[in-house]
UniProtKB/TrEMBL annotation:
The keyword Aminoacyl-tRNA synthetase does not apply. PROSITE patterns: AAA (PS00674). It comes from Callorhinus ursinus. Interacts with GRIA2 and GRIP1 in an ATP-dependent manner. ATAD1-catalyzed ATP hydrolysis disrupts not only its binding to GRIA2 and GRIP1, but also interaction between GRIP1 and GRIA2, leading to AMPAR complex disassembly. The lineage of its organism: Eukaryota, Metazoa, Chordata, Craniata, Vertebrata. Belongs to the AAA ATPase family. MSP1 subfamily. One of its GO terms (molecular function) is ATP binding. It is a single-pass membrane protein. This is Outer mitochondrial transmembrane helix translocase. It catalyses: [protein]-with a C-terminal TM segment(out) + ATP + H2O = [protein]-with a C-terminal TM segment(in) + ADP + phosphate + H(+). Its main location: mitochondrion. Keywords: ATP-binding, Cell membrane, Membrane, Mitochondrion, Mitochondrion outer membrane, Nucleotide-binding, Peroxisome, Phosphoprotein, Postsynaptic cell membrane, Synapse, Translocase, Transmembrane, Transmembrane helix. The keyword Protein biosynthesis does not apply. Residues 80-216 form the AAA+ ATPase domain. It is found in: Mitochondrion outer membrane; Peroxisome membrane; Postsynaptic cell membrane.
Length: 316
């Protein structure tokens, strides 16, 4: 039943991305189910704030050689890289950047879940690994995106299961095969919070690396402006002050903090107004004090999470 659903999903996605008259094997169909529907990929560079330098480098090294292929076809040096690594703390926009890159470059985006390759019978993993690359080549230009790539291609050890070790070796061999045809426009893009856990052989295959770090002051201010751009915010709110108070916050932390601040206005309205007189226009704008309260809540949450990590480390 699951295989039938995967095939149906794959066929639907293939039509939506405009692929016709391309025959796929059973294993390629299974991987095709992980194609991201371009209609659902709304992210653009304008949705990403505070990472201008990274975006500029990505445009130059990845996107331009794909979009202007004819300008670079006589140079092996100027071909898009076959491996790109986005690394840094969680919640800083690595997945957003990968999707925006694919959309900007006009690439088909395969959001590969490692469990697709590892939760199979013996021998199936190698066939599926081969299908990842054969499908990507048929659909090129394409990006094979692996989130938390360290969980899939971490340092190899003697404790690895034989089937897993064989699958990893084949995955890397197929990856190397992309380099034999310099005109091939398939990129493996990975994201990780723990680059130190990646196999050194994987690192060699990902020479183009971008550190997506915690946002600095000006970056936090830019992110806050983007998050609150279309929200009901009091005109006296000082976002620079908010940015100064949120040192150490990731982009996702800032978004959650702003959501909490907006919810304070909703709760206040609900608690102070009878149900009969509810009028959505009466919800007041987000004020500086709401953001301050939300910041304190987020800081307590982050402190509690940190203490929990320390406790586990001590117990181990």
């Amino acid at each position: 039943m699951e295989d039938v659903e995967s095939q149906t999903q794959a066929e639907k996605l293939m039509k939506q991305i405009g692929v016709k008259n391309v025959k796929l094997s059973e294993y390629e169909m299974s991987i095709a189910a992980h194609l991201v529907d371009p209609l659902n990929m709304h992210v653009t560079w304008s949705d990403i704030a505070g990472l201008d330098d990274v975006i500029t480098d990505l445009k130059d090294t990845v996107i331009l050689p794909i979009k202007k292929k004819h300008l670079f076809e006589n140079s092996r040096l100027l071909q898009p890289p076959k491996g790109v690594l986005l690394y840094g703390p969680p919640g800083c926009g690595k997945t957003l950047i990968a999707k925006a890159t694919a959309k900007e470059a006009g690439c088909r985006f395969i959001n590969l879940q490692p469990s697709t390759l590892t939760d199979k019978w013996y021998g199936e993993s190698q066939k599926l690994a081969a299908a990842v690359f054969s499908l990507a080549i048929k659909l090129q230009p394409s990006i094979i995106f692996i989130d938390e790539i360290d969980s899939f291609l971490r340092n190899r050890s003697s404790s690895d299961h034989e089937a897993t070790a064989m699958m990893k070796a084949q995955f890397m061999s197929l990856w190397d095969g992309l380099d034999t045809d310099h005109s091939c426009q398939v990129i493996v893009m990975g994201a990780t919070n723990r680059p130190q856990d990646l196999d050194s052989a994987i690192m060699r295959r990902m020479p183009t690396r971008f550190h997506i770090n915690q946002p600095a002051l000006k970056q936090r201010e830019a992110i806050l402006k983007l998050i609150l751009k279309n929200e009901n915010v009091d005109r006296h709110v000082d976002l620079l002050e908010v940015a100064q108070e949120t040192d150490g916050f990731s982009g996702s932390d800032l978004k959650e903090m702003c959501r909490d601040a907006a919810l304070l206005c909703v709760r206040e309205y609900v608690n102070s107004t009878s149900e009969e007189s509810h009028d959505e226009d009466e919800i007041r704008p987000v004020q500086q004090q709401d953001l301050h309260r939300a910041i304190e809540k987020m800081k307590k949450s982050k402190d509690a999470a940190f203490q929990n990590v320390l406790t586990h480390v001590c117990l181990d």
